Design the sequence.
């Protein structure tokens, strides 16, 4: 799994961007919400990522914030929603805006998003109600306040099936500098099993 990329932005042409990481050019697909925050080509860049492995392709998706990636991963778990629709949702609405739509059961707003029809919108409202990231995850970019170790640990906990809110709670108050990513994951899981 590739958790994040840190390198130089080479080119950007929605939905594709290329990031040079140590002489290797990674092609990354990203939502428009991420494109709006990209630097100019030639400047440094860090993205959190999600890798989708299919029979015919390995596709790397990149996001400006942990909140965007968490929502993308939650959307992929909804039946009938693939990566294309998930990118369309993130391109058309902010994470907090999506959260409000689900809480307010706003079908009309969701149907305005690219690739989302009425049936998909209704399914999103039902299936996303208990998967919504809380404000701890949605507030701000997430990358500034989180270290690489915390970002990696949070991603690992999501991959293990924990909800974004649970992962945030599990990592709260842990000594990031001392533990590192592996230590954070071990300690977070130990805490859960002790309860």
Sequence:
């Amino acid at each position: 799994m590739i958790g994040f990329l840190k390198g130089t932005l080479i080119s950007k042409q929605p939905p594709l961007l290329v990031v040079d990481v140590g002489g290797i050019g990674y092609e990354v697909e990203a939502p428009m919400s991420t494109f709006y925050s990209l630097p100019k080509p030639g400047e440094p860049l860090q993205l959190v990522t999600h890798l989708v492995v299919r029979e015919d392709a390995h596709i790397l998706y990149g996001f400006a914030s942990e909140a965007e990636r968490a929502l993308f991963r939650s959307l992929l778990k909804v039946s009938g929603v693939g990566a294309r629709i998930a990118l369309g949702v993130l391109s058309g609405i902010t994470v907090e805006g999506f959260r409000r739509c689900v809480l307010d059961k706003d079908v009309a707003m969701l149907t305005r998003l690219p690739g989302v029809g009425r049936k998909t919108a209704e399914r999103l409202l039902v299936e996303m109600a208990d998967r919504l990231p809380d404000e701890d995850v949605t507030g701000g970019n997430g990358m500034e306040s989180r270290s690489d170790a915390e970002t990696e640990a949070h991603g690992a906990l999501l991959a293990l099936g924990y909800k974004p809110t649970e992962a945030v709670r599990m990592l709260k108050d842990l000594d990031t500098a001392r533990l590192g990513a592996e230590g954070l994951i071990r300690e977070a899981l130990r805490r859960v099993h002790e309860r």
Summary: Confidence is low (pLDDT under 50) at residues 136-145.
